[in-house]
Recover the amino acids of this structure.
């Protein structure tokens, strides 16, 4: 297994130990279950990347790792539900709350989408041309479908960003309530479990990198400044959208939960 797989396995094992401890310590049950939920979520925080790779016909980096990520996220959902069980529910708010949430996600993603579409259409940003991005994808073993979309000017990551924005509106707007509950919640929980930690940790690394306190590999970029420009746009998009998705998911969960009078 890779180092990331080992870390995921360690988090998942720790989550099991803490969850078992919660059974034997009723007085601390809820706190321990939330701790186990966090550990399990850490094990599954890159599941979205695995699913995107499979969606576009690419193999995952590690099959054991993909299984661990799936188990981690499923465990996080189950443990979170168990930790919240039995708590007195607040009355549901009248009408769809949080109408502003999708627009926050849109604003966070716009610079990222513009950057990706610019490259997909052959433009240049941060010293990198669209042709160089395509060549890098080929070197990294991108699938035929991925490369075809990039050649047609349809960056796959930009397409996924558009799909993510649609998901936000689905979770908040009334028409989303007419769907089976699991349909929007499944991708929403996967997105929250991946993008929130990935985006926030990325931003936390960029702060000392901006100050020159930690190394920052330049890769295909010509300078450190260009790497930082792309990094700030990407991680800010993932973190901002992830937090907006978390708020929208919480709203949808409460409005559709049988406990709070939903479907």
């Amino acid at each position: 297994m890779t180092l990331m797989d080992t870390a995921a396995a360690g988090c998942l094992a720790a989550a099991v130990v803490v969850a078992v401890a919660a059974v034997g310590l009723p007085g601390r049950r809820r706190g321990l279950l939330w701790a186990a939920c966090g550990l399990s979520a850490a094990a599954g925080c890159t599941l979205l990347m695995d699913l995107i790779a499979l969606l576009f016909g690419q193999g995952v980096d590690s099959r054991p790792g993909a299984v661990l990520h799936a188990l981690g996220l499923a465990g996080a959902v189950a443990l979170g539900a168990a930790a919240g069980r039995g708590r007195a529910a607040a009355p549901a708010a009248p009408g769809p709350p949080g109408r502003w949430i999708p627009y926050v996600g849109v604003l966070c993603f716009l610079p990222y989408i513009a950057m990706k579409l610019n490259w997909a259409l052959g433009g240049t940003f941060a010293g990198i041309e669209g042709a160089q991005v395509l060549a890098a994808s080929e070197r990294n073993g991108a699938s035929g479908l991925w490369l075809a979309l990039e050649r047609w000017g349809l960056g796959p990551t930009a397409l996924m960003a558009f799909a993510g924005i649609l998901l936000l509106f689905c979770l908040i707007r009334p028409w989303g309530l007419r769907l089976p509950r699991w349909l929007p919640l499944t991708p929403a929980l996967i997105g929250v479990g991946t993008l929130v930690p990935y985006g926030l940790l990325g931003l936390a690394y960029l702060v000392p990198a901006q100050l020159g306190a930690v190394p920052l590999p330049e890769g295909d970029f010509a300078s450190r400044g260009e790497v930082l420009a792309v990094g700030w746009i990407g991680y800010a998009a993932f973190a901002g959208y992830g937090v907006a998705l978390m708020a929208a998911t919480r709203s949808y969960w409460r409005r559709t939960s049988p406990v709070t009078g939903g479907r």
Observations:
- Residues 79 and 211 are 39 Å apart (CA to CA).
